[in-house]
Design brief:
With about 575 residues, the chain is α/β, with parallel strands linked by helices. It has 4 domains: about 10-95, 3-Layer(aba) Sandwich (Rossmann fold); about 100-190, Cobalt-precorrin-4 Transmethylase, domain 1 (3-Layer(aba) Sandwich); about 190-280, Cobalt-precorrin-4 Transmethylase, domain 1; about 290-569, no CATH class. It is about 65% helix and about 10% strand. It is built from 25 helices and 12 strands. Helix 3 links the parallel strand 4 and strand 5. About 45% of the residues are buried. It binds iron/sulfur cluster (SF4). Iron/sulfur cluster binds near residues 14, 98, 189, 191 and 260.
């Protein structure tokens, strides 16, 4: 089955911001930490927040203590005041776009205007807006309800931010026809508008649409309604477990979209489940290829191959192509370290990639043994072939084992607070050491290693950080301190752009192989594919990321051999 992912789906800016505020407050704000009502309309995310000791609070007690976070929808000003009076430290997570509508409601009601809010009177955002409009506020949700309004002269029309654009326009036209002279603000949020536009586009491409989101989420339900109006079969699911797999199997192409409060990892689980669904339309060879690729990623074989080829290419540039034990050593080490780390950190993987988590849990004893065996082989090879770098190999082995063990991971997590990005930096340093430093020290190579060190470091860093971006929401919810969780997705992208720029400089001024500039271009394309959600978070995107070191290595080896043959000729 072909799965087409909506380019705009999942957390909108306001929800992402509120979630980040809550995750930060869980570790930093005065405890206990509450959210005023459920933070987002997603049961799984709320359960995870509870594991971080962030609980929803219903109603306002006369006396309270700790911190309370106001949700992205906002609340009436009277309730905000009451929370402060009760003794809570209030953190306002209201979306800036909702704040703007609240400000309009307050301004016009103070000027004596009636404030007509087009939206669902039961929705938290509308209740909050009514609080700002005071006794001048009126809510309608359909053109028929205009009949219930009093005669209007001086009035302003505002909309709930998640209102359907078509319906809003219809209501506004009817209101102006009956009561001319009203002021109109289209306060429908862009995020909502874009998601609705996108679902209409998906309907043109796909036979069925899966909408992922909370069943009580207004914008999720609206996306499902739109797809239905467009004549598509719609499946509204909260998680991958709700997917009616048998009914979905008959479709060749299925579109996936999600409400603004659906975390990425919930969407990913749905996409992975659909991708894994055997389809009568998929040719056998394609199914096997997909399974093979999946096995390579899940078992870390792709990663082992990546560091192998990268080390080999460095050896070629150092003029040592026959020393094949260095790439083997690098592969064994990275396979062992990454597998051990994944096995010890299964919690976040259960969210981000449940199939990989299942694979690891199923073969846990075997993979644990294999990981330790890989470490032993690495040490044996280092002792036999790289005695002068043996100390460095032992040091890296011990560090990765200590880093992965659960006893140390808690301490490391707290230390990571003052040293963000420690995980990705460490992965990059380990890759750099095995692909460049170990052979350089062992062979007592005369050529300076700095250019190749920088090159390998940057490739490994870009790969590691990009993979962390793919898992940022799941990692954040389980309290894993990766670079994107710590500094946010936007800043992580800026860091990646700087790293890609540096990579281009190293290629031009260090390695002096202009044709290798395709590598930074490849990285930029990868980032763009993700940002524009052209591939969603599919197996293909992960495959392209893992292919980065492999493609890089193959290109260098190929170039070196062409050069050698041309000079021999
Ligand atoms: S849908 Fe728009 S207004 Fe509502 S929370 Fe998201 S970004 Fe803010």
């Amino acid at each position: 089955m072909q799965v087409v992912m909506a380019q705009k789906a999942g957390f909108c800016m306001g929800v992402r911001r509120a979630v980040q505020i809550a995750l930060r407050a869980a570790g930093e704000a005065p405890p206990p930490v509450y959210t005023y009502g459920p933070l987002i309309h997603n049961a799984q995310a709320l359960m995870l927040l509870e594991t971080l000791n962030v609980y929803p609070l219903k109603g306002i007690p006369t006396q309270g203590q700790g911190t309370i976070i106001i949700r992205a929808h906002g609340i009436p000003p009277q309730e905000k005041e009451a929370l402060k009076k009760a003794g809570f430290h209030v953190i306002d997570g209201t979306c800036p776009r909702v704040l703007r509508v609240q400000a309009l409601a307050r301004r016009y009601s103070r000027q004596g205007f009636h404030v007509i809010i087009v939206g669902d009177p039961e929705h938290a955002e509308v209740k909050g807006l009514l609080g700002y409009a005071g006794d001048k506020g009126l809510v309608i949700s359909s053109p028929q309800e205009i009949d219930s309004l009093p005669p209007l002269q001086k009035y302003v029309i505002l909309s709930q931010t998640t209102q359907d654009t078509v319906l809003y326009t219809k209501i506004v036209q009817e209101l102006l026809r009956r009561f001319p002279g009203g002021k109109v603000y289209n306060t429908i949020c862009n995020a909502t508008h874009e998601r609705q536009k996108e679902v209409r586009r998906l309907c043109k491409l796909c036979e069925a649409i899966v909408v992922v989101g909370g069943k009580n989420s207004a914008n999720t339900k609206r996306l499902a309604q739109i797809a239905q109006q467009e004549g598509r079969e719609v499946f509204l699911v909260e998680t991958a477990h709700d997917l009616p797999l048998k009914r979905l199997q008959k479709f060749k192409r299925v579109g996936v979209t999600a409400g603004a409060s659906t975390p990425n990892w919930v969407i990913n689980q749905v996409i992975r489940t659909l991708e894994n669904l055997p389809s009568p339309y998929e040719p056998g060879w394609k199914r096997w290829l997909r399974k093979l690729l999946r096995f390579c990623f899940e078992s870390n074989l792709a990663l082992g191959l990546g560091i192998f080829v990268l080390t080999l290419s460095n050896l070629v540039l150092m003029g040592l192509p026959s020393k094949i034990y260095y790439p083997l050593m690098a592969s064994c080490f990275c396979f062992g370290a990454h597998t051990l780390n994944r096995l010890m950190d299964i919690k976040s993987l259960r969210l981000n990639d449940p199939f990989r988590a299942q694979f690891l849990e199923k073969y846990r004893p075997f993979l644990l043994g294999l990981s330790l065996l890989s470490y032993l082989i690495t040490l044996f090879m280092a002792w036999t072939y790289a005695r002068s770098a043996f100390g460095l190999v032992v040091f890296l082995t011990l560090i990765t084992i200590i880093y992965s063990l659960p006893f140390f991971s808690k301490k490391q997590a707290s230390r990571a607070r003052w040293f963000p990005g420690v995980r990705s930096l460490f992965i990059a340093l380990a890759w750099m050491s095995f692909s460049t430093l170990v052979p350089w020290i062992s062979e007592n190579h005369p050529q300076s290693p700095y250019v190749l060190m920088a090159f390998s470091f940057l490739i490994a860093f870009i790969r590691a950080v990009f993979l962390e971006i793919l898992e940022v929401q799941g990692d954040g919810f389980v309290g894993k301190e990766t670079l994107p969780v710590f500094v946010g997705e936007k800043k992580t992208f800026q860091i990646l752009y700087v790293a890609i720029g540096l990579l281009a400089l190293v290629i031009v001024w260090g390695i002096r192989m202009i044709t290798l500039l395709f590598i930074p271009v490849y990285c930029l394309l990868l980032l763009n594919l993700y940002r524009k959600r052209l591939l969603g978070q599919s197996l293909l995107l992960e495959g392209l990321t893992e292919a980065l070191p492999i493609t890089t290595g193959i290109a260098i080896v190929r170039k070196a051999f062409i050069y050698k043959h041309s000079t021999q000729g």
